[in-house]
Amino acid sequence: MKKRFFLEGGLLTIYSGYLILFQLADSFLLTNALEAGGLTAQAARISKGIYDRGQPLVQLGLVVAMALSSTFLPTLTKYLTVKNQQLFEKSAKMYLRLTIGIASASAVGLAILLPYINFALFKDGSGNVALVLFVFSIALMATIQAYQSIQQSRNTYTFGLLAAGIGLLIKCLSMWPLTASYGTAGASVSTLLGLGATLCCFVVSEQRRAKSSINHFWHEGNYGKKLFICLGIMASVLFLYYSFVAILLNGPLTHRLQALLFCLGGVGLGGAAFIGAAIKIKLLTIREWLLVPFGKKLLRRGEKHEIR
């Protein structure tokens, strides 16, 4: 009993703070790697501070994914307990579709709006490239947490520890050469590589599981294609918004409050574009929309708009 408690609790703790472990690796290696790349000690510390701006932004984007995890895990466990494999896989696919859809929209929208966010919070545009790359950790980390929850609901724990170790190892091994060559942007890429490796472990493990069709969620109902269309529409709307703001300002941003207001406007506009496109092309089923906060209201508004 104690072994199971520490194993389950330890695994949940690791994946809840998985990016913090990556940040721990950064704290030991990043500054030295930047100095090896030619920066002075002071410049390396400044670059490290700028790079750390991405952590709270990513953690904020992961809040929704963690909420979904706590909602679906009891349901998945219940279906396994009564040995209803069909309902288990149906719920798991629904969980993955919702998590990836929301996390991908958050990552892409945040990446496009990041220059405004960076200026609004810190009054400069330092480290924009590294931070833009880093926020894509939201999509990878949310998907990892979804797969890990599915594995945990099956009472499978040791593989999750192995996958976490592989990802962390790849992060540490790739970080020094990438950071020395490309600066903090290289450190962001090493984080994406580590997370990508962990995700690949879970996907391959699920693929090899007998009689499991969970990975097929990507192709069912053309979900993958529809998701890219929704993200493309949202990105196009936000880039048009960028162009409008540039014309309106007739120059670079000079006030943080101004940047914050444009940021909030972009969040609302991008979110509306993604949700509108998702309803129009039926990215999610009605049942899945009902699981999203305010999903019922969003569906009703979408239907009224189509009738008009």
Reconstruct the topology from this structure:
Elements: H1 2-16, H2 18-36, H3 41-51, H4 54-61, H5 63-81, H6 85-122, H7 128-134, H8 137-153, H9 158-182, H10 184-208, H11 223-249, H12 256-280, H13 286-291, H14 295-307
Helix pairs in contact: 1-9, 2-3, 2-9, 5-6, 5-8, 6-7, 6-8, 6-11, 6-12, 7-10, 8-10, 9-10, 11-12, 12-14
- Total number of helical segments? 14
Shape annotation: flat
- Give the end-to-end Cα distance, rounded to a whole number of Å: 60 Å
Which range does the strand content fall in?
under 5%
Helix content: over 70%
Quick one: how many beta strands?
0
Order of helices and strands: HHHHHHHHHHHHHH
**Assembly annotation:** single chain
Sheet with the most strands, sense and barrel status: none
Enumerate the spans where pLDDT stays under 50 for 5 or more consecutive residues: none
Give the integer mean of the pLDDT values.
Answer: 85
As a whole number of angstroms, the C-alpha radius of gyration is: 21 Å
The domain tally reads: 1
Q: Structural class of the secondary elements?
A: mainly alpha
